[in-house]
Amino acid sequence: MIQTSGLTKRYGKFTAVDGVSLNIPAGQIYGFLGPNGAGKTSTIMMLLGILKPTAGSIRLFGEEYRPGRLDLRKRIGVVPEKQPLGMWSWMTAEEYLSMFAELFQVPSPRERIGSLLEKVGLTDVRRKRMAEFSHGMMQKLSIIRALLPDPDILFLDEPISGLDPFGVKQTRDLILEENREGRTIFISSHILSEVEKICHRVAIIFRGRLLAEDQMGSLLAGLSKDREIHVDLENVPEDLPTAVRALSFVLEAFGRGGTLVVKVPKSGDYRRELSQFLIARGLVPLAIQEKSLTLEEAFVTITQENVELFAGIGGRA
């Protein structure tokens, strides 16, 4: 759906985006991550045709993307981080959506607007002025506006920023529903825990350079230096961590409340051997499970510890 090759954007002597190549398949929820100033916004603005690249190319739907390709641009829906309330505040939600339905030449606009309002629970406020809307209501309205022309790709910039827990769940459910219907969704966000729940694939950009791009599971597995096993016990004897550390396959062991935390090499699964060792000492594991690296932990690892590895900055290319 989206392909970039060597995408670059310079502002004078400053390079905001440095040779970024992306490959986003159809039907995926794609997370685009990076700290403030990493180059996310400039990249998105080029993908939307708002900024012209300094170098590199963009292909949408398998075709070369140029500023004049309005036929491709109309297949994209956009939900910005900041809602453009200003000049529209005097309008009702229904008036606002009707105006964009006319601009987008949406077939059967009344039915389409009614269906989308019902989907996000805004039917009862369709005639309420937007100046009276909460942040969460405005976010839903912005998503509806982007969905009006039934786009093939939906861009979401910080879609859950500032929402309460209920609003976060509603927005998450809506994103998942739209994806199940076949829509490709591009999410730029700094709320990593939420991205981890819904994205199939993620890219991490840092100082304008693409550090990693992979399926969520592969990315997390690839960055894990070792495996961490958590064993729940009735209690962790004081001498147990020391005894466990003496095992040949154990890298580290320590107690955390009623849990024994054991780190072992990434190359093997030692849960069976660990269970046998504990049972031989008269201890019964209540639960034993492997703790996976979280996206937040992976993000910190990439952007701080492994910049040289992924970006080739002063180290391995």
Q: How would you portray this structure in words?
A:
By secondary structure, the protein is an alpha/beta fold. The protein has two domains: 2-220, Rossmann fold (3-Layer(aba) Sandwich), CATH 3.40.50; 225-291, 2-Layer Sandwich (Alpha-Beta Plaits). The protein has twelve helices and 15 strands. The strands form three sheets. The protein has a six-stranded mixed β-sheet with strand order 7-8-9-4-10-11. Strands 1, 2, 3, 5 and 6 form a five-stranded antiparallel β-sheet that branches. Strands 13-14-12-15 form a four-stranded antiparallel β-sheet. Strand 1 (2-11) and strand 2 (14-20) form a beta hairpin. It is elongated and about 75 Å long. The two termini are 28 Å apart.
Write the layout of secondary structure elements.
Elements: E1 2-11, E2 14-20, E3 23-24, E4 29-33, H1 40-47, E5 55-60, E6 63-64, H2 70-73, E7 76-79, H3 93-103, H4 109-119, H5 135-147, E8 153-157, H6 165-180, E9 184-188, H7 192-198, E10 201-206, E11 209-215, H8 216-223, E12 226-232, H9 240-245, E13 252-256, E14 259-265, H10 271-280, E15 287-291, H11 295-305, H12 307-311
Parallel strand pairs: 4-9, 4-10, 7-8, 8-9
Antiparallel strand pairs: 1-2, 1-3, 1-5, 5-6, 10-11, 12-14, 12-15, 13-14
Helix pairs in contact: 8-11
